[in-house]
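Render this sequence as a predicted structure.
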Amino acid sequence: MNIRILMILFLVFISCKNVTENKTEEAQIVVNSTGLEIKTIEKQKEYSISNGIWISTIDSLSTVEIKENKWIFKYENEKTELDDNYVYLITESVFDNENSIIDGGLILTNESDTLKYGIDYISDKNMTLIYLPRGNFHHYVKKRIKTLYSNVYN
């Protein structure tokens, strides 16, 4: 009898939610010794960094090339080694009104290494990361491609 009442309450709870709500949520139903428990889990918004070449503001010869989820460290006039290729994952993220990340975590991994960064700010044009073991900042700007009509970000 108790489970029926809890199921009815669950259905009422679901039907009373705001239909126009934009957040993506999942409901997890847990049955334990005290009865039926409903947990709402908000899915994290997926975000990827804008593809292209990002130039370090500290050392203009140092760049990062991003293709899909690949992160490639490059330095001008030097051959890119296999160890310079990483896969990136944004583990946590907080967004502002312009859909830029203003806080979070970034992990770069390859076969031999894992690098951890804190995200200070990432937009389509600027990126500021904090290298976590040392705490130093890395600032990057998106490389512009000049076209006949205007400047376009790569």
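Summary. The radius of gyration is 22 Å. The longest helix spans residues 2-15.
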